[in-house]
Structures are given as C-alpha cells and as structure tokens.
Amino acid sequence: MSDIFDFFKQNESKLHERPPEKVWKQLEKKLEKSRRPKRRGIQFLQLGVVALIILLLILMAVMVWHFSRK
After folding, report:
1. Single pTM value for the model
2. CA 24, CA 3: separation in Å to the nearest integer?
3. Is 69 helix (H, G, I), strand (E, B) or coil?
4. Is the CA virtual torsion 53, 59, 65, 67 positive or negative?
5. Residues 28-63: pLDDT tens digits?
6. Rounded to an integer, what distance in angstroms lies between the CA atom of residue 61 and that of residue 66?
7. Greatest extent of the chain over all pairs of C-alpha atoms, in Å
8. Over 90: is that where the pLDDT of 3 sits?
9. Domain count, the chain
C-alpha cells in the first residue's frame, strides 16, 4: 500500500500541470462539433399534442353530457 503513496508523492508535481492553450482550443472545437443543435420543433409538437388531448377530453365531456340528458 505504501508503494501507491510513494508513487503519488513522487509525481505530485505532475498533478498541477496545465495543458497548453492550443490543446484547450482544439478540445473546444471538438466539443462544438459533437453538440447537436437544439430542436425547436419538438417543443411545439409537444404543446400541440397537449392541446389536442385537452380538446378531445372536452369533446368527450360534452358528448357524455349531451347523451346523458336524453
């Protein structure tokens, strides 16, 4: 177990190294390429589905009320 502690003590200076700025910029470019664009259509579609369900429920309630009066 002491071997692991010795290893970390000997290499502690490497833990504080910072990569060059060029490396960060390359990483940011890769991340930008891999990100998917946000889709606005899905939110609109979800809102439309909710509105359709509410309209169907209102229509069913009106039909039940209408036929229960007869």
Report:
1. 0.41
2. 33
3. helix
4. negative
5. 888 888 777 666 666 667 888 899 999 999 999 999
6. 8
7. 90
8. no
9. 1
